[in-house]
Amino acid sequence: HSHCDLFSSQNYPLYIRSVPTENELKFHYTVHTSLDVVDEKISAMGKALVDQRELYLGLLYPTEDYKVYGYVTNSKVKFVMVVDSSNTALRDNEIRSMFRKLHNSYTDIMCNPFYNPGDRIHSRAFDTMVNSMMMQVC
């Protein structure tokens, strides 16, 4: 099982995807708890974040069932990924690489003149990329 979310700087959800989909509600609490951790880390970093294009926050916190990872762009868009704790094959650099792929795809969407920043993301290409990435971690 895995779950991927993107949030605006105001913690408004821009994109949510769960594999399998029936677990979406189950992840809701875990993800919102993790946003508090992300916000704490961002405020602790202060100006350091602005000086970088992105920041991989690493493992935000583990639960008995899941590991929650975070990533934030310099415009404070937050990416949260939740993976099954039983998946021990995933390395930190693989998670970081997945977040970079997500960030690059998100940047492509932002460059689309028909996308209004802050709107929910509805993109078949983005869905396909996220789905294939999440199948690797399930």
UniProtKB/TrEMBL annotation:
InterPro entries to which the protein is assigned, alphabetical: Longin-like_dom_sf, Sedlin, TRAPPC2L
Gene that this sequence comes from: Trappc2l
GO BP, sorted A to Z: endoplasmic reticulum to Golgi vesicle-mediated transport
Gene3D superfamilies on file: 3.30.450.70
Compartment list: Cytoplasm, Perinuclear region; Endoplasmic reticulum; Golgi apparatus
Highest taxon listed in the record's lineage: Eukaryota
Family designation: Belongs to the TRAPP small subunits family. Sedlin subfamily.
Protein name: Trafficking protein particle complex subunit 2-like protein
Keyword Transport in record: yes
CDD domains, per database record: TRAPPC2L
Keyword Cytoplasm included in the entry's annotation: yes
Organism: Origma solitaria
A cellular component term, taken from the record's GO annotations: Golgi apparatus
UniProt KW keywords: Cytoplasm, Endoplasmic reticulum, ER-Golgi transport, Golgi apparatus, Transport
